[in-house]
Amino acid sequence: MRHTLTLLLIIGSLFSVNGQMKKWTLEECVTYAVDNNLTIEQFELDLENAKIDKSDAIGGFLPDFNANSNISERSGLVVDPNSNSNVSGTIFSVSPSLSSNITLFDGLRNVKRLQRAKLNTIANQYRLDDLKDDIRLNVANAYLQVLSSKEQLKVFKAQYAVTEQDLKRTKELVESGVSPRGDLLEIEATAANQEQQIVNGESLVLISRVNLAQLLQITDYENFDIADESFAVPPSDILNNSAKVIFDKALGFRNDIKFSEATVDLAKKDLEIAKGANYPTLGAFFRYNTFYSNQFQVVRDPQTGQPIINPNTMLPEFFREEFIDQLWLNDGISYGFQLNVPIFNGWSTKNGVKRSKISLERAELQFEQDKLALEATVQQAYVDVGTFEKAYEAASKTLEARRLAYDYAKERFDVGLMNSFDFSQAQARVDNAEADLIRTKYDYIFRLKILEFYFGLPISLN
């Protein structure tokens, strides 16, 4: 039993380690976020509702069919169904009926409602796809933030390792009397500052991981991490296209623009439906009805006057034969057409048309505003790519120059021609240049991916 328990614990710990070793790639993060986002699930329910509306609109072309029955008992002055005269007594009656109605013409509103339901389904699909696009961009940005924080942390740790070597060598020089104690104190201060940078860097990594996990709606922050990858700036020829070309292409496939355009189409269809209320409505109907009354309920023996009892059921005969006979004898049908001509209804139809026109104008204005917003976004993204590309190139040149200056300073420091303060300043400038290069690199990558996304390219770091 003990060996079995030990084996189970070992297997459980292996599974736990495997769970902690899960490393998420960008594609996995994007896919998971789209598949598990709660807002997306809500929008999918809205899409299902739109499909149900379409089914309702199709049902508007079909006749209805209903069954109805009235069962009542009255006492006092009642109408005798035999003589159709008022008598004193009690009467029990049953009046079942069947009816069917169909709309033949209602100003084509049933046709317009079906068209609107189809448009609404398409519009909800565009809205859902637009939300997915936004989530992909947000996840990509958060993913790059984690990568940037991790790379900065690696740089901080590498710099601290170099400083530890300098600290060890300086201690030896101070102890041998070659260097003053002030040099050691300066190196120790630099090491302490780098330790603080490492702590801050670890905090940034943790915060960026939590932010990404929250976008994915994952709460196990401790066991969530991304793949240990380092991405170089991917090659791209997106800037070979002008901002106008990118905007024109985005205008043709962006889901937010399609949704805005579909909203205009819905408003137009609502206006057509509102105008249809000005036309007459023509319908057809068919009704079948019958009734039963207890005034005919008892079949009596002509000699004794007593109710005739059915020997099979031990019930009065009317429950089996006379009830059914009455339904057949008293039934009838009616059918015809019904015309309803709107003449005056308190200006409700007229005002409904006016409201629909206002809604249409508002939708058209929103559509134009969305196109202008997209154009501004594309223009800004285009400018950002050029700006951050130059910033990244400048940061690369700066880091190269700082490293050369640091190497020269280190050579002088090692032979005693530079004091520790000046040397620590040279090292600090290298640290800042490396951190700035990492930041500008991932800023540039993200802006590049945004512009490519508006050009119709999928989000990928390859």
From TrEMBL:
Localization in the cell: Cell outer membrane
Major localisation: membrane
InterPro entries reported in the protein's UniProt record: OMP_efflux, TolC-like
UniProt keywords, alphabetically: Cell outer membrane, Membrane, Transmembrane, Transmembrane beta strand, Transport
Family stated for the protein in its record: Belongs to the outer membrane factor (OMF) (TC 1.B.17) family.
Annotated PANTHER family: OUTER MEMBRANE PROTEIN TOLC
Protein name from the UniProt record: TolC family protein
Source organism of this protein record: Croceitalea marina
